């Protein structure tokens, strides 16, 4: 698996397809966040954007290999393992970008209600929840489960929106937890959203990997 992850990461970096989702996210954060804003509200906005970005990154990684190269990789390592490596590469890349954004926003925001370290800890947990939720959305809305590009993009956008606004969604709960905040300098982030997001991402990855055997 390590070799597959290195291959997928190198392929992503060389293709420069990561530029579009991550630059759009950088613009989203840069335009929406001003220095001196209350830290928890700023972090809530920051992590919300990670849901569509993570889904987009998964879609990029799952579609970056030409069919011939994908067939060679599948023959050498197995379709399911190659598929999982692409998903993990996208998730890891988005987690890195999200963590960087959380730390930068925490440093630039106002900390009257919550100290920087607890705020950063809550932000990182919420970012992880949103990235995992986006991973589930991206995995379920692209190959091999949805092969049509038009329908794939449509369901990805709709799924990302629903993940952010639907009550009960792990991402929605994580964002709301940050925005409502805590009046004390303690971490008040509940474990349930992160657990739910991890379960969703794991289930989606399992379904996508199983789908490579009967849809490709």
Could you give the distance between the termini?
21 Å
The main sheet comes to: none
> Uncertain runs with pLDDT below 50, 5 residues or more?
none
Assign an overall shape: elongated
Mean of all residue-level pLDDT scores: 88
Helix content: over 70%
Oligomeric description of these chains: single chain
Strand content: under 5%
What is the number of helical segments per DSSP (H or I, 4+ residues)?
10
- Rg, rounded, reads 17 Å
**What string gives the helices and strands in order?**
HHHHHHHHHH
Helix vs. strand class: mainly alpha
Number of domains: 1
Total beta-strand segments: 0
How does this model look, in words?
The protein has 216 residues and is an all-alpha fold. The protein has one domain. The protein is built from ten helices and no strands. It has helices spanning 2-15, 19-32, 39-48, 50-63, 67-77, 79-108, 116-140, 149-165, 170-180, 192-215. Helix 2 runs antiparallel to helix 4, helix 3 (39-48) runs antiparallel to helix 9 and helix 7 packs parallel to helix 10 (192-215).
In short:
The chain has 216 residues and is mainly α.
Name its key features:
single chain, 216 residues, mainly alpha, 10 helices
Furnish the topology, listing elements before pairings.
Elements: H1 2-15, H2 19-32, H3 39-48, H4 50-63, H5 67-77, H6 79-108, H7 116-140, H8 149-165, H9 170-180, H10 192-215
Helix pairs in contact: 1-6, 2-4, 3-6, 3-7, 3-9, 4-6, 4-7, 4-8, 5-6, 6-7, 6-10, 7-8, 7-9, 7-10, 9-10
């Amino acid at each position: 698996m390590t070799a597959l992850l290195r291959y997928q990461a190198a392929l992503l970096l060389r293709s420069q397809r990561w530029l579009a989702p991550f630059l759009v996210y950088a613009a989203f954060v840069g335009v929406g966040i001003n220095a001196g804003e209350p830290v928890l509200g700023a972090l809530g906005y920051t992590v919300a954007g990670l849901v569509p970005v993570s889904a987009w990154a998964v879609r990029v990684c799952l579609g970056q290999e030409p069919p011939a190269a994908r067939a060679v990789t599948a023959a050498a390592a197995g379709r399911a393992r190659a598929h999982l490596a692409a998903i993990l590469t996208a998730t890891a890349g988005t987690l890195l970008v999200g963590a960087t954004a959380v730390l930068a926003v925490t440093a630039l925001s106002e900390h009257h209600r919550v100290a920087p370290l607890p705020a950063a800890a809550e932000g990182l947990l919420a970012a992880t929840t949103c990235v995992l939720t986006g991973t589930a959305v991206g995995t379920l809305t692209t190959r091999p489960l949805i092969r049509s590009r038009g329908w794939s993009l449509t369901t990805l956008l709709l799924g990302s929106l629903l993940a952010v606004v639907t009550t009960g969604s792990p991402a929605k709960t994580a964002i709301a937890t940050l925005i409502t905040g805590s009046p004390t300098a303690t971490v008040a982030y509940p474990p349930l959203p992160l657990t739910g997001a991890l379960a969703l991402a794991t289930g989606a990855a399992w379904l996508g990997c199983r789908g490579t055997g009967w849809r490709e």
